[in-house]
Design a protein that fits this description.
With about 80 residues, the chain is mainly alpha-helical. The chain is built from 2 helices and 2 strands, in the order ββαα. The protein has helices at about 20-25, 55-75; strands at about 5, 20. A two-stranded antiparallel sheet has the order 1-2.
Length: about 80
């Protein structure tokens, strides 16, 4: 599931901006996932082999295309 996306270059100090699913216009899940019973020990970051993006509109468009590809081509909501 695409939950967040960082936009542009990270600032000199601290974390990059985090954009919520509603802010980047995520599609609704095709099925509901239950909450995890415990906090995960590891997190895996999915990334594409595309060029970087340096504006919020360009990054949103890129993440939407990743989600569309996964949901439409693979029948998966990620």
């Amino acid at each position: 599931m695409y939950s967040l996306v960082s936009i542009g270059n990270p600032p000199a100090f601290g974390c990059p901006s985090i954009i919520s699913r509603s802010e980047w216009g995520a599609r609704a899940p095709t099925q509901q996932n239950s909450r995890l019973p415990t906090t995960p020990g590891h997190v895996y970051i999915h990334h594409g082999a595309s060029e970087g993006c340096y504006s919020e509109p360009a990054c949103i468009k890129m993440v939407q295309s990743y989600q569309n590809y996964q949901m439409d081509s693979h029948g998966k909501e990620r």
